[in-house]
Prior knowledge:
Layout: E1 2-7, H1 11-22, E2 26-31, H2 36-42, E3 44-48, E4 52-57, E5 61-63, H3 66-69, E6 76-79, H4 90-93, H5 95-98, H6 102-105, E7 110-113, H7 122-129, E8 138-151, E9 154-167, H8 180-195, E10 201-202, H9 207-227, H10 232-235, H11 255-280, H12 293-305, H13 315-322, H14 328-342, H15 347-370
Helix pairs in contact: 1-8, 9-11, 9-13, 9-15, 11-12, 11-14, 14-15
Amino acid sequence: MKEILVVGFGGVGSIYSLIAKRSGLARVTAVARSNYDAVNQNGMHFKSSKYGDIPGWRPDRLCKSVGSAADTPYDYVILTTKALPDIIKTPTILAPLLTAPYIEKYPQPAYVILQNGLNVEVDLYHAIKALAQGEPKIIGTSLYIGTNLLAPDVVEHNGFDRPTLGIYRHNDFTTTTNSPEETVILEGIASILAKGGSTVSVVPEIQRKKFSKNFWNVAFSSLTSLTGYTLPSVFRPPPSDPSIQYEPFVAPKTAHLINEFTIPTLKAIMEELVSLARALGFPDSEDGLPSSTVESILNNTASIHVSPESTHVPSMLLDVRKGQPIEVEVILGEVVRMAKERGVSVPRVETLYGLLLVVQNQIIRTMASKL
C-alpha cells in the first residue's frame, strides 16, 4: 500500500482522491482547506457519469492543513491547487513538508503536480534541491478532466479524466529517456491511477505535452476572459430554427470581420507558440510538437462551439466572473519569459499577457479590500 497525500480538495483533488482510493493500492490523506468543515461533516458527494453517484465519500484521513498532515511519510504528494505564483508559491503551500521537523524524520516524497500552465514545478524544484536530499522527484502532468465543484461538498464529473505523466527535468526539454529510478516512480503512481479507473499515459518527456495543452489556454482562455464572451461568440451562427434559441452567436452584420481579423489573430497567436517550441528543441513531429497543432486546435475548437449545445465556460473566464485570481503567470507569463530568454518574438502573446495583468491586478485589489 502506498501512502498518498492530496493537497487541494476541490473538483480535481477530490476526484483523484477517489481514484487513488478505488485502486485498492493506496491509503489517501486529503487536505481540504476552504471546504474542510463541509466535507468533514457530510463527506464528499460525487455525481459522476463514470464512477456513479456517491454521497458521503471520505478519504482515509481528512486534514485541514498541510501542517496537520505532516506527521507521517508519504510515497506521493499530489498537488491540485491552482497555480498562482504571483499570489502564493508552491513551496509556501507545502512548507510543512519542506522544513523541520518533517525533513529530519522522513525522506522527501515524489510530488505529482496536477496544475495548468508551464514551469509550475520550478519553485518546488529549487526548494527541494536546497534541502540537499538528492535530486527532487517531481512528476509533471498534462491533465484533461471534466469536473466542477458545485458546492463545497458536491463534485460533478462528466466521466473524463485523462492525465499524462512525465518526470520534470529542470531546464531540460530534450531528454526522452527515463532512468530506472524515474521509471519506478512514474509507474508507481500511474498504476495506482489506472487501477482506480483513470486513463493514464506515461511519456519520457512531459514538457512538450504541457506546452501543447497550453496553446488552447493562451489563445482561447485569454480571448474569453478579455471579452467576457464564451467561444460560440466567435464560431456559432445564429439560430436557424425559431424553436431553438441560444446565445451568444456571431451576428451576421459583422461576421465577415470576425472571419477576417479575429480567427486569423487566434491562429497567429498559436503560431508564435510554435516558434517558441522550435527554440526549445521540440521537433516538428507527432512525438514532438507538430506544426499542424495550430490548425487542429482551431478546427477542433470551432467544431465544438458551432453546436447549439455548447455551454462550456473556460475556467479562466469563470475565475474572472467570480472575482478569483487567474492563472495568468503560468499560462502566459511563462511563455513571455521563455521567449525573451531565447530571443523569440511573441508580440501577440505579450499583448494578451499585458492586458490580463490588468484584470489580475484588479482582482487582487478587490480581494485585498475585502479583507
